[in-house]
Write a structure and sequence with these properties.
With 222 residues, the protein is α+β, with helices and mostly antiparallel strands. Helix content is 26%, strand content 22%. The chain has two domains: 72 residues, no CATH class; 109 residues, no CATH class. The chain has a five-stranded mixed β-sheet, with no helix packed on it. A two-stranded antiparallel sheet has the order 1-2. It catalyses: a 1,2-diacyl-sn-glycero-3-phospho-(1D-myo-inositol-4,5-bisphosphate) + H2O = a 1,2-diacyl-sn-glycero-3-phospho-(1D-myo-inositol-5-phosphate) + phosphate.
Length: 222
């Protein structure tokens, strides 16, 4: 069994302006005048059928080795030739669409996973590829860092303030409680400095997270 060539092209007119097509079996010219509404036409020379249109929806053309043109379901895998002198059983493989028969599909843009975010610095919109907020993002327009959502800077600001105040209170406690000991062992001053320094660093970090710009998504996730 063989699949016929594409039949999407309607015959071109001959010199007299009458539409004609070549027979797919004997290559004789077939007059299509008044037959353009049909799916197949019969050759007057070899008496075989030739398609002039694509098969109906859900159907396909198959030509038997005896040149009999058959129309069957496009899901059929075996069909029998109805001619009494043939009766051949035709086994069909998967149908491959010929490129000319396959309608051109418009190219669909590839949608990347992520969400559109409005930069807190420059106000431009960029695509953020993380499927979660509470993280930092670098705007491709202004090259500045901002937080996607306000939850992350709020949590970190509160955490650094808490840790900083604890360190300062520890430093004050050491200063008050170890004054006499520090006069004899000067290394005690180092512990005071470390406690105050850690508290100061934490408060500076809290100020950083409290002042960081926040970028908000155009559409929040449900």
């Amino acid at each position: 069994a063989e699949l016929p060539p594409p039949y999407t092209a309607i015959a071109s007119p001959d010199a007299s302006g009458v539409p004609v097509i070549n027979c797919r079996v004997c290559q004789s010219l077939i007059n299509l005048d008044g037959k353009l509404h049909q799916h197949v036409v019969k050759c007057t020379v070899c008496n075989e059928a030739t398609p002039i249109k694509n098969p109906p929806s859900g159907k396909k053309y198959v030509r038997c080795q005896c040149n009999c043109l058959l129309i069957c379901k496009d899901t059929s895998r075996k069909i029998g030739c109805p001619r009494p002198n043939c009766r051949r059983i035709i086994t069909l493989g998967p149908v491959m669409l010929i490129p000319e028969e396959q309608p051109a599909q418009p190219a669909m843009p590839v949608q990347a996973d992520g969400t559109r975010v409005v930069c807190g610095h420059c106000g431009n919109t960029f695509l953020w590829m993380e499927l979660r907020f509470n993280t930092l993002a670098k705007c491709p327009h202004c090259k500045k860092i901002s937080s996607v959502g306000s939850a992350l800077p709020r949590r970190r600001c509160c955490a650094y303030i808490t840790i900083g105040m604890i360190c300062i209170f520890i430093g004050v406690g050491l200063t008050v409680g170890t004054q006499d000991f520090a006069r004899r062992f000067h290394a005690t001053y180092v512990s005071w400095a470390i406690a105050y320094l850690l508290g100061l660093i934490c408060l500076i970090r809290a100020c950083y997270w409290g002042a960081i710009k926040v970028s908000y998504p155009e559409h929040s996730f449900a």
